[in-house]
Each structure stands twice: as structure tokens, then as C-alpha cells.
Amino acid sequence: MSRHIVIIGGGVIGLSSALACLKRGHRVTVVEGDPARRGASLGNAGMVVPSHFVPLAAPGMVAMGLKWMLSPESPFYIKPRLDWDLIAWGIKFWRASTQRHVEQSAPLLRDLSLASRGLYAELAEKEDFGLVKKGLLMLCKTQHGLDEEAHTAEKARALGLPAEVLDATATAALDPAVTMDIAGSVYFPQDCHLQPDRYVATVLRLIRAAGGSVLDEVQATGFRKSSDGRLATALTSTGDEIAGDEFVLAGGAWSPGLVRDLGLRLSMQAGKGYSLTLPDPVELPRICAIFTEARVAVTPMGSTLRIGGTMEIAGMNETVNQRRIEGILKAVPQYYPKFRREHFNEVQPWYGYRPCPPDGLPYLGRTRAADNLVIATGHGMMGLSLAPVTGDIVGRLVDREPAGFDRFEMLSPDR
Ligand SMILES: Cc1cc2nc3c(=O)[nH]c(=O)nc-3n(C[C@H](O)[C@H](O)[C@H](O)COP(=O)(O)OP(=O)(O)OC[C@H]3O[C@@H](n4cnc5c(N)ncnc54)[C@H](O)[C@@H]3O)c2cc1C
After folding, report:
1. Nearest residue CA, atom 31 of ligand 1?
2. CATH number of domain containing 211
3. What CATH code is carried by the domain that includes residue 75?
4. How far is it, in rounded angstroms, from Cα 403 to Cα 26?
5. Do 306 and 161 reside in the same domain of the chain?
6. Which of 186-190, 269-273, 309-313 comes out lowest in average pLDDT?
7. Which domain holds residue 277?
8. Left (φ > 0), alpha (ψ -120 to 50) or beta: where does 412 sit?
9. 77 vs 281: which has the higher pLDDT
């Protein structure tokens, strides 16, 4: 039966959900407050990463985070402040950073990522959004870094994900288009990359072609409940109320504020990250890469090269932290010696907020807070990667079907 689905947030998660609901025959309205920026959806590194089966909350992360906090150019920073949400988030992060949590999460993250990759590949048969299926190189500057990555490769293979440990010569043979100064790499052949802005434009076009409605520059401000406890309307900044049968919250890092009044407390911090896109790079790698020790992502996008990194948990503000950008840029010539800091002099940095729950797993599912509300947020560093499968699952949940993944309850927004 066709129903009206109201989706809050027109980032990659909200748009992918809208398309999936339209395909199921529903009427869809997407409410998007800031279509020019679209949260973290446009300027991200564009990687689709089955290799990322370890959640952010993992053993050793707390110690590494504390060490990194001492350096202003490090890839990770938490601004210490007296904020109860941050303190509660930190305690939950610390509690979740166990081997058991990693072991329980890894198969679910693998299954979600592979399903998402499949959906991207399917869409790419009809639409061009720059999907390149050439894998991902985890480039290691040091032998110590390579040994650690080799350990991850072993775990990947145990999960059925192909991963090859390569020395510097074998890495160079795999991507001869770029000069590298490294000890070696781990190659994940199933990973891919794409151009996120083109994916967003493609999905928007398909939504409109299928009769979906996208309300741009309209901010959802809350919900009105009906007497039976279900959500009746979404309240908006224009004063209009949008009535719906089902509501989907896909507001990225802004999501918690919208459901607090419903009694749902989504523990989440905004993890600010930056990217810089070189229009005319001296060399253009064919394969996307992560500089493992520096935690910097490098992605060829058409003829341009995007460099992205840092995770700054410092609230939401318009400040661009130049020291952290320097940290990203310093890493580039260390791994790609033909590049120079000056190449980036004219490039404007972009930033976005990753929606980061404390246990590194998305909030995806129905909630006790309201019977007709689906939560689809908190994808952290993997929102682009998991967008199509999230959309698919939202479609199933809206139709009251099972999500179709083992241990799906680990993602419950009520956890
Ligand atoms: C530097 C960087 C690199 C990254 N690289 C990758 C990568 O390679 N691969 C990957 O998978 N992920 C990557 N990510 C993470 C990815 O960008 C996010 O996980 C993803 O964008 C989350 O999607 P979203 O739709 O949930 O949130 P967002 O992209 O933030 O979109 C949320 C949308 O909701 C709208 N919104 C919020 N509240 C309201 C409201 N009340 N009313 C109306 N609209 C509202 C916002 O305007 C926004 O458009 C990266 C992130 C950063 C910062």
C-alpha cells in the first residue's frame, strides 16, 4: 500500500532512502535545510570500503587518541570541555573499545558494506557517478605500519575479504601512475571510489524523475504527535507542517536535537574532517589510498585529486583549523614525493561533520520513541560507503519487513 514517507535530511543517507522508498511505490518528501552544503555528503573522500570492518571504537583507540591529542597537527582531536553529552559519549566510547565489540561488529559491517558495494555497482550499470572498482591501497610509510596493516589483512581474509600485503615494488607496479615513498601496502581489491557530488546529483535526479518531492532550504524543527502517540507531522522553519504516514530521520550530525523531545537520546558527536581537491595534480593515482600512519585519504576524482583527513571532536562551528589542515598537507609529500605543499596554496579547504556514535556503529532501525519513525544516521566515517544499503534497509523497515542482516539489532537506535 502506497504511503507518504517524510525524510528529514537530504544527504547521502536521506537521498538513498528516498530513492529506495520511491522504488517501493511510496510517495516521498525529503526536507533539506542546506542543499548547497548537504552536510558531509559532497566533499568527502568518496571511498566505498568493505575493508573498514573494524568500528572506530576498538582496542587501542583510546590510548592512541590521547597521544594524538597532544599534537596540534595530529589526525584526531577531542577538545576537552565540560559538556555532559561529550563526557557520556567518551565513557561509552571507552566501554565499547573492546575486542569482543570488534568481533561482534565486523561480520555485520562486512555484510552491510558488501551489499552496499553491490547496489552501487548495479546503479553504475545505468548511471555514471564516477564509480571506479580498482580497490584501495593502505600505504605504509614504515615497516612497523606495514606489520600492523598485515595483521588487519589477516583478519580481513578470515572474514572472507580479499587483502594482499605488498612490498614497495609490487605497490608501484599496481599503481604506476603515482610515485610513492613507502615501505609497502595492503591492497583491498573489493574497495571502490566514486565522486560523491555526482552520486548526490544522480540520486536527486532519479528521485525527481520518480515523482519524489525535495523541499530545499526547509529546516525540520521537530515533530507533532497525534493522540495515538504516532508522529502526525514534521514541523518546519517555514511554519508549514508536513503530514506523513512514516518519518525517517537522516539528519547526519544534527539528528540528536530533532528527537530529544520525543525522549530518544542518540549519543553522538560531530567529527569534523577536512578535504582539499587539487584541480590539476602533478600525478594522478589510479587507485584510491589511505596513508595509514597519517590517517589521510587520497582519492582520484576525474582529473582532480582529493585529499581528506582529521577527526576533530570540538562541537559544531565554522572555524577552519589551519594547523590540522597543515597536518594533512604535510603527509602528502611524505608518501607521494612529487607533491609539494605549495601545490595546495590556492585550494580552499572543505569541511564536513561525520555523525559519530560512541560505539562506531550507525543508528539504524525503528525506535520505541514513536511507532512510525525510522532512524537512519550515525554512519561516522562510512556514510557514503553504506548509503545505498541503508536506503534499501529503510525501504524494508518502512514496509515493516525484516532488515535482512544477522545481528542487525546491534544498530538499534534504542541501544
Ligand atoms: C573529510 C571526510 C571524508 C570522508 N570520507 C568518506 C569516505 O571516503 N567514505 C565514506 O563512506 N564516508 C566518508 N565520510 C563520512 C561521510 O561523509 C558521512 O558519513 C556521510 O556524509 C553521512 O551522511 P548523512 O546523510 O547521514 O549526513 P550528512 O552528509 O551530514 O547529511 C545530513 C543532511 O541533513 C540535513 N539536515 C540536518 N538536519 C536537518 C533538519 N533539521 N532539517 C532539514 N535538513 C536537515 C543537512 O543539511 C544535511 O544535508 C567522510 C567525511 C569527512 C568529513
Report:
1. 11
2. 3.50.50.60
3. 3.30.9.10
4. 18
5. yes
6. 309-313
7. 50-182+269-356
8. beta
9. 281
Is the domain of 93 the same as that of 35? no
The dihedral through the CA atoms of 319, 33, 24, 242 has a sign that is positive
Q: Give 141-191 pLDDT, tens digit per residue.
A: 999 999 999 999 999 999 999 999 999 999 999 999 999 999 999 999 999
What is the distance in A from the centroid of ligand 1 to the CA of 302?
22
Q: Kindly state if the Cβ of 47 falls inside 6 Å of ligand 1.
A: yes
Phi, psi (deg, nearest 5) at residue 8: -95, 115
- Amino acid residing at 225: K
Which atom of ligand 1 is the closest one to the Cα of 250? 26
pLDDT tens per residue across span 40-65: 999 999 999 999 999 988 888 888 87
190 occurs within a structural domain: no
72: pLDDT strictly greater than 80: no
Q: Are residues 330 and 400 in the same domain?
A: no
**Does residue 171's CB lie within 6 angstroms of at least one atom of ligand 1?**
no
Give me the residue label for grid cell 584526531.
76
Closest residue by Cα to atom 53, ligand 1, is 273
